[in-house]
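Worked example 2:
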Amino acid sequence: MDNLDSLDLKLVLSFANAYRRLNEKGEISDQQLEEVMQLVENYQNFAPAEFKNKLHEIFPESDF
C-alpha cells in the first residue's frame, strides 16, 4: 500500500508541477492555476469522468 500511496503522490505532484509551468509560461491564467490546484488537492473526491469534466470547465477550449 505504501508503494501505491507513493505513486499516487508522485502523480499528483507531477500533474501540479506541469500546470505551474504552464502558468509560468503565461499559457494559463493565475485563476486557472488556482482552480486546477484545488481540483488536484481534492482529486480523490471525483470519478475519472467527473475529474475530466471539471478540467474541461476550467479549460473549455481544450480537448482532454
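The chain has a mean pLDDT of 90. The chain has one domain: 2-58.
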